[in-house]
Amino acid sequence: MKHFIVLFLLIAGFLSAQQYSSDDLFQMARNAAFNDKDYNKAISLSQQALEITPDYTDISIFLARLYTWDDQPEKAREIFKELKEKGTEDADFFLAYGSLEYWNDNNEKALEIVNEGVSKNPLSSDLLILRAKINNSDQNYASALADLENALKIDPQNTDARSLLTRVQSNGVKNSIGVSYTHSHFDKQFEDDWRISTLSYKRGTKLGSVILKLNHASKFGDSGFQGELEAYPRISETFYMYVGTGYSADVGIFPKFRLGASLYANLPKSFEAEVGVRHLYFSDGLWMYTASVGKYYKNFWFNFRTYLTPSSQNVSHSYTATTRYYFSDANNYLGIQVGTGISPEEQLNSLLPDGVYKLKTFKVGADYNFTLSKNNLFTISGTYYRQEYRPETIGNQYDFSLGYARNF
C-alpha cells in the first residue's frame, strides 16, 4: 500500500510539472529566488525546466547563478564549463562565470573569463564594469579607469559605473599637489574679513591615500599656521577609513589639536554610509559625532550628513544635504549644498571657537569642479551663511573659495 501511495505521488508530481512550460518554470524559479529568497526551490524549478528544454541557455546560466548564491561554486562551475564547451558567447554567461570566480577571490581566472567576454561583447557595459572591479581589486587602476570610462560612454547614466569610478579615481592617484584659498566676509559679526590658504600633498599607497596639509589663516589682524595629516586606509572591498589629526601652536587662530576618525562602507545598490567622531581642542575639548548616508543614481550623487555635539545641557544638531551632478567622471561635477548648523569639515570653520557650534546657522552653497587635461583639477565654490553668532543675534557670512590640484 505504501509503495502504491509513493508511486501515485510521483506520478501526480510528474503530471503537475507537465502542466507548465519551461518558461513558466523559469519565471517561477526567478520569483522563488528574488521574492522569496528560497534558493532550494528555485534550483528545483530550474532543473525541472531544463528537463523539458535541456538547451535553454538562459535557464542554465540562471541555475549556475543560483548555485553561486547558494555557496555551491563547484556545481556552478560544472554548468559554466558545459556551456563553454557548447560555444556559448552570451554576455550574461561571461558575466555570471566571471562573477563566480571574482567573488571567490580567483581574480586571475575571473579576468581571463571576462577578457574573453569583452572580446565577444565589446558593448557590454556590465562586463566592462566587472573587469574594472577585478582590476581595482588587483590595484590595476589605469585599466579599471579605462573600462569605467568606456562603460559610461556606452551607458552614460550607469549608476554602478559612476559609483565605482569615484573610488577608482581616488585610488589611482599616485601623487597630487594642491593649493586652495578661502575668503570670508561678515556683515556684522567681525570687522575684518577672514582668509585661509592651504598647501597639500597627497600620496597614493597600497594601503590607501595619505595627505599632508599646511594651513595659514588670518583673522583679527593676526595670523597663524596649522599642520594636518590625513589618511584613507582601505580595509576591504567594502570598508575603508578616514583618520586625521592636526596641530597648531597658534591657538588663537586655530584649535590646538584636531582629531578625527570615520568608518565608511560601500553598500549594495550604490549606497554608501559613514559613522565617525571628531575632536577639537581650543581652551576646552569639543567632541562631535557624525553619520552620513549617500546614494549614486545615474549621474547624481545624494548625501545626507549629521553632526551631533553633546554638552552638559543638551545636544546640538547639524544637518547637511548635498547633491552633485557628474558631467563625465568623479572630478567634473556641479554640487549644491543646503544645511543647518556648523560642520568642522568646512575649512574656515576650523577657525571658529567652540561655542559657535551650539548656535543656529542656515547655509546654502554651490561648488563647481572641473579638469583640464585630466591631471589639472580646479574648484570654485561659494557659500552663504545666515548665522546666529550670539544668542538671538543674526549676521550674514559669505564664503568664496578657489582650489587647484595637479596629479602626477
TrEMBL record:
Which residues belong to any copy of the YaiO beta-barrel domain? Answer: 174-346
* Gene3D superfamilies for this protein: Tetratricopeptide repeat domain
Its domain of life reads Bacteria
Q: Determine if Signal is one of this entry's keywords.
A: yes
The UniProt keyword set, sorted, is: Repeat, Signal, TPR repeat
Short name of any one Pfam family annotated for the protein: TPR_19
The positions making up the signal sequence are 1-17
Q: Is-annotated flag, keyword ATP-binding?
A: no
Looking up InterPro entries in the UniProt record yields: Beta-barrel_YaiO, TPR-like_helical_dom_sf, TPR_rpt, Ycf3/AcsC/BcsC/TPR_MFPF
Q: Which PANTHER family match?
A: CELLULOSE SYNTHASE OPERON PROTEIN C, TPR REPEAT-CONTAINING PROTEIN MJ0263
**Could you identify this protein by its name?**
YaiO family outer membrane beta-barrel protein
| Naturally occurring in which organism (per UniProt) | Planobacterium oryzisoli
